[in-house]
C-alpha cells in the first residue's frame, strides 16, 4: 500500500521504490557463490516473527522498569534511524569466557582439597583412597557446573556494578572514550535521508552511500549441526561486505532473513508506514506517513506494549509464523535491477551530489 509522497520531513534523496534513479553498472557481477541476491521493492509485508516476538517481550520488560525507556539515547531504533553495531569478536569472546573462567575457578576448590588429603588417604586402602578422591572431584565438577549456571548472570551484573563504582572518578574520560568507540562501530539505516552508514572500525571512516547502492544477500553459514542463515550487505560499487553486525544474527530459517530484509526496505521506503514492530511503536506518531496511516486505520498506539503475549503467540503469532514460512519468497521480482547500467558512474555521482545532503 503506497501513501502520500515525501513532505518536508524527508530529504530529497530519501528512498522510494517508484523513483529509483538510473544506476551505473557495477565493476563485478552481483551473483555470489553460495549466496542468494535478495530483491528490491517487491514487498511481502511480513515482519520477522522471531525478532518481533523477542522485541515484544523486551519492550514490555523495559516499560515495567521505566515507562519512558525509549526516550533514552541508548534506544537505537526510531522514526529516523535504525542504528546497530559492528560485531566485535574480541568482546564476544570475552563475554563467553567469563562463565568458563568462573567454572574452572570453582573447580579449583575441590581440586585443592583432593591434593590436601592426598597424602593422608594414600596411607590407607587404595580402594578407599581412589573412591574418596573420585567422590570429591565428581561432586566438585557437578557442584561447579550447577553454581556456574545459576550464578553467572548475578556475578556479571555484580562485576559491572563494582566496575562502575571503582571507575566513577574517571566517568568523564570513560564516557568520551565510550562515545568514540560507539561512533567508530555504529552503523545506521536513515529513513529521512535515504542514506546507509556502515562502520569499518577505528582506523577507517565509515562507508556512507544511498540505500540503493547496497545489495542484500541471504548468506548461508555452515556451522556444527547444519546450515544456518544471515543477512549480508555488499556495497555494489566497492565490493565491501558487511555481515558481522548486531542487526542480523545467525538464524535457523531462510524466511526469517528474507522477512528482515522486507522489514528494512519498508522502513527505508517513505511511501510506506513504519513496519509495525515493537521497537518502533513509540515513534510511529512522529513519522508523517505512519501517523496518517495509523489515523486512517485506527491502530492502537500501545498495541505491542499492552499485548497479552502468551495469548497472541498461541493464536495470531502462530498464524504470522506460518504465513512467513509459507510465503513464496522466491517469486519476488527485483524493481532495482532494471535501473542498473542506465547511467555512467561520473554522471551518477554528479546527480547524487545534487540530491544528497552535504556531509
Give the topology, please.
Elements: E1 35-37, H1 49-65, E2 81-85, H2 89-116, H3 118-122, H4 126-166, H5 171-185, E3 186-190, E4 195-198, E5 207-210, E6 214-223, E7 226-235, E8 241-242, H6 254-268, H7 288-297, H8 309-314, H9 316-326, H10 345-355
Antiparallel strand pairs: 1-6, 2-3, 3-4, 4-5, 6-7, 7-8
Helix pairs in contact: 2-4
**Strand tally, please?**
8
Radius of gyration: 26 Å
Main β-sheet, spatial strand arrangement: 1-6-7-8
| Overall 3D form | elongated
Mean pLDDT: 86
Sequence stretches where pLDDT stays below 50 over 5 or more residues: 3-7, 89-93
Helix content: 40-55%
Largest sheet: 4 strands, antiparallel
Explain the overall architecture:
There is one protein chain. The protein has two domains: about 15-80 and about 190-355, no CATH class; about 90-175, no CATH class. It has ten helices and eight strands. The protein has helices at about 50-65, 90-115, 120, 125-165, 170-185, 255-270, 290-295, 310-315, 315-325, 345-355, and strands spanning about 35, 80-85, 185-190, 195-200, 205-210, 215-225, 225-235, 240. It is about 45% helix and about 10% strand. Strands 1-6-7-8 form a four-stranded antiparallel sheet. Strands 2-3-4-5 form a four-stranded antiparallel sheet. It has about 350 residues and is α+β, with helices and mostly antiparallel strands. The two termini are about 35 Å apart. Mean pLDDT is about 85; it is low at about 5 and about 90-95. The longest helix is centred in the middle third of the chain and has 41 residues, at about 125-165.
Amino acid at each position: 500500500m503506497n501513501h502520500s509522497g515525501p513532505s518536508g520531513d524527508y530529504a530529497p534523496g530519501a528512498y522510494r521504490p517508484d523513483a529509483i534513479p538510473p544506476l551505473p553498472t557495477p565493476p563485478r557481477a552481483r551473483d555470489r557463490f553460495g549466496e542468494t541476491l535478495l530483491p528490491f521493492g517487491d514487498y511481502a509485508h511480513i515482519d520477522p516473527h522471531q525478532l518481533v516476538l523477542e522485541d515484544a517481550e523486551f519492550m514490555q520488560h523495559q516499560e515495567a522498569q521505566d515507562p519512558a525507556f525509549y526516550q533514552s539515547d541508548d534506544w537505537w531504533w526510531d522514526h529516523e534511524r535504525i542504528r546497530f553495531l559492528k560485531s566485535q569478536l574480541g568482546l564476544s569472546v570475552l563475554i563467553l569466557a567469563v562463565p568458563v573462567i568462573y567454572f574452572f575457578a570453582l573447580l579449583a576448590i575441590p581440586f585443592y582439597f583432593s591434593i590436601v588429603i592426598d597424602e593422608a588417604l594414600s596411607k590407607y586402602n587404595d580402594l578407599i583412597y581412589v573412591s574418596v578422591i573420585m567422590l570429591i572431584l565428581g561432586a566438585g565438577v557437578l557442584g561447579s557446573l550447577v553454581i556456574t549456571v545459576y550464578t553467572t548472570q548475578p556475578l556479571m551484573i555484580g562485576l559491572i556494578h563494582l566496575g562502575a563504582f571503582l571507575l566513577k572518578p574517571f566517568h568523564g574520560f570513560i564516557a568520551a572514550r565510550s562515545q568514540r568507540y560507539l561512533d567508530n562501530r555504529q552503523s545506521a539505516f536513515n529513513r529521512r535521508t535515504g542514506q546507509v552508514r556502515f562502520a569499518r572500525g577505528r582506523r577507517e571512516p565509515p562507508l556512507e552511500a544511498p540505500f540503493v547502492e547496497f545489495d542484500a544477500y541471504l548468506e548461508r553459514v555452515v556451522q556444527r549441526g547444519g546450515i544456518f542463515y544471515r543477512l549480508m550487505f555488499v556495497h555494489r560499487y566497492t565490493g565491501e561486505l558487511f555481515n558481522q553486525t548486531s542487526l542480523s544474527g545467525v538464524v535457523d530459517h531462510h524466511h526469517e532473513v528474507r522477512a528482515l530484509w522486507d522489514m528494512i526496505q519498508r522502513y527505508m521506503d517513505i511511501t510506506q508506514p513504519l513496519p509495525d514492530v515493537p521497537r518502533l511503536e513509540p515513534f510511529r506518531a512522529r513519522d508523517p506517513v505512519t501517523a496518517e496511516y495509523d489515523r486512517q486505520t485506527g491502530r492502537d498506539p500501545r498495541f505491542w506494549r499492552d499485548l497479552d503475549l502468551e495469548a497472541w503467540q498461541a493464536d495470531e503469532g502462530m498464524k504470522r509464523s506460518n504465513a512467513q514460512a509459507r510465503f513464496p519468497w522466491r517469486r519476488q521480482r527485483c524493481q532495482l535491477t532494471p535501473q542498473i547500467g542506465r547511467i555512467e558512474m561520473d554522471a551518477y555521482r554528479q546527480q547524487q551530489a545534487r540530491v544528497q545532503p552535504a556531509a
